[in-house]
Amino acid sequence: MHADGDESVDALWTRCRATLRERVGTGSFQSWISPLRLASIEGGVATLTVPTAFLGSYVARNFQEAILAVLDEAGAPATRLIFTPQGRAIPQAATALAEAPAPAAHPEPAAAEETMRLDPRLTFDRFVVGKSNELAYAAARRIAEGNAVGFNPLFLHGGVGLGKTHLMQAIAHEMRARNPQARVLYLSAEQFMIRFVTALRDRKMMDFKQVFRAVDVLMVDDIQFIAGKDSTQEEFFHTFNALVDQGKQIVLTADRSPVEIAALEERVTSRLQSGLVVQVNPADYELRLGVLQSKVAVARAADPSLRIAEGVLDFLAARVTSNLRVLEGALTRLCAQASLVGREITLDLARDCLGDVLRASDRKVSVEEIQRKVAEHYHIRLADLIGPKRLRSFARPRQVAMYLAKTMTSRSLPDIGRRFGGRDHTTIIHGVRKIEELMGIDSQIADDLDLLRRALES
């Protein structure tokens, strides 16, 4: 190697590690840089040993430029990095699935490999925490640390684009970084069902059971997908029980809470509620702005010439409120547009480039749409919701729809009354006041309103 004087490789790497800790932050350093060891620098190639090929692949994608810059500053310039897990060299483009083989006594679930395709960007370091997701983040972090948590399963629920999948993948990344031999299986409920059906067809149920019951952590996304699929529910129930009995951790996500998932067996619903159920709420303005700032920091690291005028991020955070995925996509499109034309990102450019996104965010909810959503939520006909029948099963949903029409639209009370079968405006006032009264004493009404609002705003 070529370094200052006769400095050893270990001494050189100790100096580099200290600089890297300052530049990438303590969290990223502990998770990704600390496990690395510099083996040699020859011919402009720096060889680093890593505990797993996955970790090497992730570092190559996210920290290669930082490591090369620090080596150059330390007097040992290199043009590329090679990562060697346990004596085997692997290419920088190695798949995120590659990893060192586990001991024979604890075989990695072989058939599960294809379901573990993790996005290297979805880590805890890139998760922005706010009031709407701080409990979910804290619970996920506790599980990822590998210590006893006192709740099983962790059930995260909320609308699309709020970070549930990000947290699940962050758990997998963190656990594999801390313990490369950990058997962590992440898949969607649809994948679980497909593999179950395939095992039945091919008469390989024993193999299926062995794979899913030999893991240390099982994470299933969108568990609401198995509702109404009786055989899949039953197998999931038995898998759930087997893992809990062994003290293994389970993490699940859904678009609604367990009790709101229709066509789910009571025993399954009961099991899903037996641990910690956490709702991930829509992001508030501060969190949306924090996500944008975090994404801009990443974009500037890749393109230092990126220029964003003052007020643009505030504008986007205030206008794009549907979900974080749409918000991030809007910023990505804006950065690409600015890069292609070589312009600063200004408010005018944002308005021109994101016209369709901004128009969608400004979409006004109609009384008719509220009526359809409420009828669908309570499983009644639209005609009965609007009609004259005074049965409680129709009257209460009707009052909920009246309340939402009053609070979510700019329609006048007489106009709303006309859209509810020609009712007088005093009837609308009575319905609104009744719901306002019930909201404080009936948690089910409060939950229904929250769910309906989110569905109408998304």
Automatic annotation (TrEMBL):
Pfam families the UniProt entry points to: Bac_DnaA, Bac_DnaA_C, DnaA_N
Binding site for ATP: G161, G163, K164, T165
Source species, domain of life: Bacteria
GO molecular function terms attached to this record: ATP binding; DNA replication origin binding; lipid binding
UniProt region (Domain IV, binds dsDNA), positions on chain: 339-458
Residue span of region Domain I, interacts with DnaA modulators: 1-101
Entry's Gene Ontology BP terms: DNA replication initiation; regulation of DNA replication
Annotated CDD domains: AAA (cd00009), Bac_DnaA_C (cd06571)
Keyword Transport in annotation: no
Gene Ontology cellular component terms for the protein in this record: cytoplasm; plasma membrane
Residue ranges of every copy of the Chromosomal replication initiator DnaA C-terminal domain listed in the record: 366-435
UniProt keyword annotations, A-Z: ATP-binding, Cytoplasm, DNA replication, DNA-binding, Lipid-binding, Nucleotide-binding
PROSITE patterns, sorted: DNAA
Localization (cell): Cytoplasm
Ranges where the AAA+ ATPase domain occurs: 150-278
Domain notes: Domain I is involved in oligomerization and binding regulators, domain II is flexibile and of varying length in different bacteria, domain III forms the AAA+ region, while domain IV binds dsDNA.
Record family assignment: Belongs to the DnaA family.
Function noted in UniProt: Plays an essential role in the initiation and regulation of chromosomal replication. ATP-DnaA binds to the origin of replication (oriC) to initiate formation of the DNA replication initiation complex once per cell cycle. Binds the DnaA box (a 9 base pair repeat at the origin) and separates the double-stranded (ds)DNA. Forms a right-handed helical filament on oriC DNA; dsDNA binds to the exterior of the filament while single-stranded (ss)DNA is stabiized in the filament's interior.
Subunit structure and binding partners: Oligomerizes as a right-handed, spiral filament on DNA at oriC.
The protein's name: Chromosomal replication initiator protein DnaA
